[in-house]
């Protein structure tokens, strides 16, 4: 661990906690429901009545006494404000153009550092589904205590199957941290594995899924960013210094387009792990990144006496011997007859028909449509 | 045979020929493409560029020197005129309300009889697909020669499989009629059989499908109608007498609603067969009544290198490992991934997703929607 503002565990560490919600990512595998103009985080994909970003805010805000910063695309400004009317203007960070996660999360860290170098940030993507909320919050409290001891703390998701779609976190020895009984050192982050490797990870018991959640002192984040991406660090610091001043617009417009694009994993997490600065709290809550329409089926169980999950206000679905998922984003009548495990997503300008087994391949369709110039529906 | 205006075969029998096209029937199994406001006969279901009613007219008009009468619903007046601009006003018979085939075809017979009692009518439904046209026309010529000898002549379709969806015609001895070498007597009409019975019919070689096509002297049609449905006959004759006068509207509005509803099979064809007045010409052309979406697949073969049949102007379909039929009546992008033998019919207010094997069950969906009050899309 690196000694950046370490202190003993205590209630006051929570006063230094600030929630950050990076809200990017279209959710291509959820096309045509999710798309550039209406990305995944703006949808209620669980039938809970809340969009994913609203649910993310509601999980996080009680931990930070409503101090929450959102980083999103300029295009989504009004939609995000409609979802989170309580967000203060200076805490809504709008990207003129996407610059990948290191710039997005790094800018949040730099702005917060500028306001108060002792802040501990907790970054949680806007498009994940987590229950129960109380277990999540208890996990984050442990992470905050651990971060206060000078760690970048990730939350490791207990793997339920040998997924080849996620990166993994290899845990090391337990850490002895007051208020964080389940904290472990992190040996390394590993990229998405082959299925055989993933099976080995599950057997070993030392690996958990990397859901991109972390809690860390902003000063420690920036220290590693400076070491690994000095150009990015310099640009972000320049923007951050201007952020709460009248120069914000000028500096952002000038500097942001010049920033290198890279992932926070390469810019901070992996080198920090190699330096022994990363800890992990196991997340024993239920977690889903709603990666495809099969997930929608899991998260919205079919009504009793039916094998068909129907999502959408005012959906008009008639089914006979049909099972699967229907997402209705229109008022059209949808009739399904004699078709199993089907996935139907009905939107005003695009229709997807596939099966649960092929849900991951939706991304390919989107790539094809992009290549063929059918960008009006993407 | 009954002696109604018999005469020897000769070119002049064709001068007495009048085509009649009953254009009724929504084509429920083709919902949501076919529906009350846009029934089957108004669609181009073969990708030929012609609607079914236009193709029916084009097959028939050369035989009758353009003397063609169309019987359809009042609702379809302008659509039918748009398809058949050459139809004369007095030959477009509009039903205020549907009264089944005996009234529709009987009215055509009565109006034509009023104009000239020696007319031979040939009635062919507006929603069947027949190729090649020349073989059809040669068959009808034989039927006209046979009708001129005092027969109601049906055209029997050679059965290609033991269908339980059609009625059958049992042929008797060959008739010796000049100009009609393949004419046979008809023993009886039989209703839709069980599959076992249908197999027996196919084995016997004496049965053909009843496609509801017939050619007959109007006087003979009316004679049997008078015997079997005197009330219907009286009403139709009253309308027919007023048809080409200024009283048409008054009489139609008064009499039509009072007419009994029955099928031409019961009112004329079956009793006429029992009386020995029915003959049959085998139709050796290819015939399809486009009974469901599986037929659309047969009639619109998939493009080479593809197992997916796509119908619809400007359809925007992306497919990956998909086979079946897509009927696109919108400009929406339709993406199909990993789904086989699917049937997708995409219209502005209703979407059908089923499989070829379940194509016949579409009717059930329509009945359900009717029962549940979703009549806006029917």
Task: Write a brief structural summary.
Helix content of chain A is 32%, strand content 27%. The first copy, chain A, is built from eleven helices and 15 strands. A five-stranded mixed β-barrel of chain A has the order 6-9-7-8-10, surrounded by four helices. In chain A, strands 12-13-14-15 form a four-stranded mixed beta sheet. In chain A, strands 5-11 form a two-stranded antiparallel ribbon.
Defining traits:
disordered N terminus; 5-stranded mixed barrel; homodimer; 27% strand; 4-stranded mixed β-sheet; alpha/beta; 32% helix; Mannose-6P_isomerase_type2 (chains A, B); globular; 2 domains; 11 helices; 378 residues; Spore Coat Polysaccharide Biosynthesis Protein SpsA, Chain A
Summarize the helices and strands and which ones pair or pack:
2 copies of one chain form a homodimer.
Chain A: E1 17-23, H1 52-64, E2 68-73, H2 77-83, E3 92-95, H3 100-115, E4 120-123, E5 129-131, H4 133-147, E6 152-157, E7 168-174, E8 184-190, H5 195-204, E9 207-217, H6 218-228, H7 230-243, H8 248-255, H9 264-274, E10 278-283, E11 286-288, H10 293-299, E12 308-311, E13 316-328, E14 333-346, E15 350-355, H11 362-371
Parallel strand pairs in A: 1-2, 1-4, 2-3, 6-10, 12-13, 13-14
Antiparallel strand pairs in A: 4-9, 5-11, 6-9, 7-8, 7-9, 8-10, 14-15
Helix pairs in contact in A: 3-6, 3-7, 3-9, 6-7, 6-9, 7-8
